[in-house]
Known about the structure:
Blueprint: H1 3-20, H2 25-36, E1 38-39, E2 58-61, E3 64-69, E4 76-78, E5 91-93, E6 99-101, E7 116-118, E8 125-126, E9 140-142, E10 147-151, E11 164-166, E12 171-173, E13 194-196, E14 219-221, E15 243-245, E16 252-254, E17 267-269, E18 274-276, E19 290-292, E20 301-302, E21 315-317, E22 323-326, E23 339-341, E24 346-352, E25 363-365, E26 370-375, E27 383-385, H3 390-394, H4 400-403, E28 429-430, E29 436-437, E30 440-446, H5 457-473, E31 478-488, E32 494-502, H6 510-519, E33 535-539, H7 564-596, E34 618-619, H8 622-628, E35 637-640, E36 644-650, E37 656-662, H9 670-682, E38 691-697, E39 700-706, H10 713-717, H11 727-747, E40 752-753, E41 762-764, E42 770-772, E43 779-780, E44 788-789, H12 801-806, E45 808-809, H13 811-827, E46 832-833, E47 836-837, H14 838-845, H15 872-882, H16 893-906, H17 916-919, H18 925-946
Parallel strand pairs: 3-5, 4-6, 5-7, 7-9, 8-10, 9-11, 10-12, 11-13, 13-14, 14-15, 15-17, 16-18, 17-19, 19-21, 20-22, 21-23, 22-24, 23-25, 24-26, 25-27, 34-38
Antiparallel strand pairs: 1-4, 2-3, 28-29, 30-32, 30-33, 31-32, 35-36, 36-37, 37-39, 38-39, 40-43, 41-42, 44-45, 46-47
Amino acid sequence: MDLGKQIFLLIMCLQVFLIAAVTDPQDFAALSAVKSNWQNTPPNWISIDPCGGSWEGIQCSNSRITSIVLSGMGLTGTLTADIGNLPKLQNLDLSQNMGLTGTLPPAIGNLKNLVYLSLVGCSFLGPIPNTIGSLTQLISLSLASNKFNGEIPPSIGNLLNLYWLDITDNKLTGTIPVSNETSPGLDLLVNTGHFHLGQNQLTGTIPPKLFSSNMTLIHVLLDSNQLSGSIPSSLELVRSLELIRLDRNSLNGPVLLDFTGLTNLSQLYLSNNKLTGPMPDLSGMNLVTYVDMSNNSFDASSIPPWFSSLQSLTSLIMERTQLQGQIPDSIFSVAQIQSVVLSNNELNGTLDIGNNYGAQLEVIDLQNNSITEFAQGSGYSKTLMLKGNPFCAKIGSTENYCSLLQQPNTSYSTPPNNCVQHDCNSDQISSPNCKCAYPITGTMHFRSISFSDLGNASYYISLQASMMDAFQSNQFPVDSIALSDPIMDEYDYLDLRIEVFTSNSDSFNRTGFSMITSQLNNLTFFQRPSSFGPFYFTLDNNGYFSGPNKSSNKGIIIGAAIGSSILVLLLLVAGIYAFKQRRKADTATEEAIRLRDPFASWDRNESAGSRPQINGVRCFTFEELKKCTNNFSDANIIGIGGYGKVYRGILTGGKVVAIKRAQQGSLQGNVEFKTEIELLSRVHHKNLVSLVGFCYELDEQMLVYEHISNGTLKDSISGKSGIQLGWARRLRIALDSARGLAYLHELANPPIIHRDIKSTNILLDDQLTAKVADFGLSKLLDHTEGHVSTQVKGTMGYMDPEYFMTQQLTDKSDVYSFGVIMLELVTGRNPIHHGRHIVTVVRMAMDKTKDLYNLHEILDPAISVGNTLKGLEKFVDLAIRCVEEWRANRPAMGEVVKEIENIAEQAGLDYDVEMLSTSASHYDSNEGTSLTTKSSLSTVEVFHILR
Ligand SMILES: *[C@@H]1O[C@H](CO)[C@@H](O)[C@H](O)[C@H]1NC(C)=O
Ligand SMILES: *[C@@H]1O[C@H](CO)[C@@H](O)[C@H](O)[C@H]1NC(C)=O
Ligand SMILES: *[C@@H]1O[C@H](CO)[C@@H](O)[C@H](O)[C@H]1NC(C)=O
Ligand SMILES: *[C@@H]1O[C@H](CO)[C@@H](O)[C@H](O)[C@H]1NC(C)=O
Ligand SMILES: *[C@@H]1O[C@H](CO)[C@@H](O)[C@H](O)[C@H]1NC(C)=O
């Protein structure tokens, strides 16, 4: 069928479709206009009938658009006033689109039916429009983690249906508005359960009028602002309160609150203020679990009796609160107690933990007090910190608890569900059910928790179970959830990493993805165990769907009266699309033929004498390899990957090799195997791991590589291998691996894209020369097109966002991954660390006007061992160019090599500024090896001198 016929048919179809379109024309026009200011809308947003079911994320009722959910779609652009022309809209969720910016249009106030508005985790700025107060149906207003500034609009006080008010983590200023004769205020929100106003720049006092007995608040979060004045005693009128966070402000004066009425109170944070007067009395508050009043200026007092009387208390945090006198042992025997932190006080006398201490007690921190004796023999063996007490000086502080800063175990990670985890070969992650897949990854930021023993698995197990319950009972496509890396952040929020795996295939489609990221911010979606307070979720910036979108043809549908010129354009788009699809299908057929017998072209002969010999790469028999690995004994295993196991072997003659043996049913097929042999046999470069031989018989596929003694770069950076990498060494490793890659891109014939560059694929030999490994996923670069279209593979965190979106692989995709490695070298952090992408972390921390670009805090401490950090800024500049979002803005690998050479030279690392072309000429592998050794030796000498 030729293209003409296809277009003709499409015209016919579309005309039928046009007549059948169900979307209200005004709604269509409005949404099209909104869309025209966005990039990366779902690829299927091309029909003229959003309600017809083809526009992902759109729901309608009676031809009118009622719901827009595009959470985490990688949208970029602005939200225009056209959004106000969707009068029936009830649900607008654009959360987790970091690329959405600009101001929130006042026209949003026209959405009189809006019930749910979530813009969490976008980049909106400017003031929150006062028209927001017209959305009187609103139940949930979630604007957390944007860049809104200006004041809180008093009109929010008109939202009498509002249950959830969340404006945390913005740049809001001014005072908290309360009503007067002429203006509404937040005090009118008597149906609201949640005031989440933390992490802003609010000033002034907390207005006493804000709270009254008519209110039904359960959470009041005003933490991390600049509020001053005293805590209004009207707060005690809100009997429903369960959580109060007023910490990290400048509140002063005595706390005149009577807590006895707040019988539901579970968590109280008053820390880091300037509160004075007597320490607040919490006697009889039997639901209180977590109390932190640290760093205030309370009157000096001895330990109040209520410390030991709270039946539910898990965490008592009272640093620097002027406590004095003897510590009663009853404080350690509170039934649920996990942490007693009373450091930097003036506690004296004898410390006696007693024999009755609570079974869950994990941490006792009494550093910097005046304790003179320690009654030992209680048997308490968990974390105990006594440094800075006279008692320690006396005994010469040889005891652990006097010297070392002990840290309790606070790690957790969901274990495999009765199955064996294996490393997944590409960017996939192994799920708790041991399936390799592409999960949704992000961080849940809990604004409060009722416990402090972060290493206690039972909390996370019940959280995970209740989340699974909710997903499954709502028939979401979720296979499993992994929780890991709990950590208290600088705001005392518990950050917990989450990975959600899909049940359908290995990755989410847009609908599934958006559904789940959206619900992860829906407060009622699942019943949290009571130990977890409210949270917000942020998505990792991993570009699941981001990048330029070829099918979002800006402007085509703008204004969209359904005129004929538009129809023609639409058809053209559709025609091109169909044409591309057909070409994809053709390629797929060729691929299928190739798959059937990948070795056909090798002219294989069963007799051992005529085994294929390629470019000096040896063909081993199964018996030979079996023998040299001691019958593939477990003791010889040096690695396990998605492909299979890697064994250490010693060939007759003593050469040590690494043998990669494909496991039965391995995901990598014969094609990859053959590709890898062909590629590796052709490339020889001192910064590439070279292939010694291979074996394919008896259903076995094995590759035999030179053995690289010092393991992966990742192991060295993480300190696992015990190798110290100072700045100079890191610079050299970057240069080595850049050279290896540049060789693949620019000198191999045909050029090769590695496409899985990551720190576990960079190996270090005994001279610490870096070598790029693992070509199992490599693809030849077809120069006629300049890119390779292929199923997306790669590793989360290292993956080029543009590649992910377009599925077109170019050498610039490797440049992106290499840039990530450069940042890893500088920071020592994983590409995804506490749920945030290293690129984002560095970009945000960077300030070019400051020394070392202000990166001190995120630099790997080990980097400065023994030398200066000369050239580090330029190195970071280069890394940031490598991770530019658009590949056109990234340098080529050859350029990267040159720049690193310059940086090294200017930094005085006077070594080995050898041209790419000379190193590329070592085609004979033996000669290459000897040259390698020679030049590395001189380099190492230089390094010894430098350190
Ligand atoms: C009433 O409150 C509004 C907003 O908070 C403020 O601008 C105005 O000055 C107040 N009016 C009076 C009479 O206090
Ligand atoms: C509480 O509500 C009642 C009735 O709606 C009202 O009369 C009263 O003034 C309110 N009290 C406060 C303190 O706002
Ligand atoms: C401990 O401190 C209290 C209050 O400062 C003081 O009265 C008492 O004498 C001290 N006890 C000892 C043993 O130093
Ligand atoms: C996308 O995923 C959802 C949820 O699993 C599923 O219902 C839907 O059929 C999928 N859509 C497509 C186009 O595959
Ligand atoms: C939030 O979750 C609840 C409970 O599952 C559900 O009824 C509600 O529709 C959800 N809200 C949105 C906006 O999806």
